[in-house]
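ARCHIVE CARD
CATEGORY: sequence design from structure
SOURCE FIELD: tokenized fold
FIELD CONTENT:
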């Protein structure tokens, strides 16, 4: 049974979440952090991270397919993550790569094809080549789903949906509009929209009302911003509610700075129980994994395990 969850507490206050204002920060973050923030940090460290299925249960079913999402939901994980792109006819479709070469065996761009054309492409059989022992015959029937179809097929699911918007900077506003059309009103408070194009977060917020936003950061971000505090400042500046970090970026110092600005923290992508333990010890909110069943089992074995809030 999936535990119904979302942001039930009051977010911590920051100096500014206005996208046009630079966050100045505290003069001395160690001594000036408020008692409320200290309590939040302590609470954060007493509970275990949520388990989020990366592109569904993609270790055991073709990524970003209905089969992978159903398997993830059945595992009992608290959230399901997926990638979204814009089809030729302006629908939000669920696929990671910009082309169909890897998962569909077709050298065509997703943006060149309509939903009807995408529905003719087998995006499940490639899984046999990578995981022959995990392949099921029915996977060959998988097609690129639309976001609307995913929500329809998972109407029973009570967890969180992480939606990553893919594409060029210029694609994001139109994709956000397509995503907004697809989200059922009753689940908006269980949707987190994330992107590496963090400059687009204010635009996404204005289009997709009632959802939360996450700023995505890959390891190369430190080649640009140099310091961790600048990364956190950028996320706050563009109005993120959460940061989603590659596991190599996680440090105790960065976690502390994020919590002081009221930012939730998700880490991607790991199937390792060891990294789950580290995430729990640091007080991270979520771990994104290809194998949710494995990490759910590992989480139960953590000392002082508590269900996520």
């Amino acid at each position: 049974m999936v535990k119904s969850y979302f942001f039930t507490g009051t977010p911590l206050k920051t100096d500014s979440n206005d996208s046009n204002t630079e966050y100045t920060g505290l003069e001395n973050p160690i001594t000036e952090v408020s008692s409320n923030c200290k309590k939040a940090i302590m609470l954060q460290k007493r509970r275990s991270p949520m388990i989020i299925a990366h592109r569904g249960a993609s270790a055991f079913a073709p990524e970003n397919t209905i089969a992978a999402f159903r398997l993830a939901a059945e595992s009992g994980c608290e959230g399901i993550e997926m990638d979204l792109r814009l089809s030729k006819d302006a629908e939000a479709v669920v696929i990671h790569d910009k082309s169909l070469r890897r998962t569909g065996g077709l050298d065509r761009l997703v943006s060149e094809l309509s939903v009807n054309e995408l529905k003719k492409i087998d995006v499940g059989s490639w899984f046999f080549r990578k995981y022959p022992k995990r392949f099921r015959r029915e996977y060959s029937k998988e097609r690129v789903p639309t976001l609307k179809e995913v929500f329809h097929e998972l109407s029973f699911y009570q967890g969180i949906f992480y939606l990553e918007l893919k594409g060029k900077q210029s694609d994001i506003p139109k994709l956000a509009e397509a995503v907004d059309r697809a989200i059922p009103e009753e689940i908006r408070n269980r949707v987190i929209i994330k992107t590496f194009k963090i400059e687009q977060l204010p635009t996404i917020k204005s289009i997709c009302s009632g959802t939360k936003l996450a700023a995505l950061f890959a390891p190369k971000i430190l080649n640009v911003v140099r310091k961790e505090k600048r990364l956190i400042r950028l996320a706050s500046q563009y109005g993120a509610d959460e940061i989603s970090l590659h596991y190599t970026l996680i440090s105790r110092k960065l976690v502390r700075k994020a919590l002081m600005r009221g930012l939730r923290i998700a880490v991607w992508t790991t199937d390792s129980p060891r990294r789950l333990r580290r995430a729990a010890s640091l007080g991270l909110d979520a771990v994104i994994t290809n194998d949710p069943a494995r990490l759910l089992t590992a989480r139960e074995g953590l000392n002082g395990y508590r269900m996520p809030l």
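CARD ANNOTATION: The radius of gyration is 19 Å. The first strand starts at residue 50 and ends at 54.
SHELF: design records, drawer C
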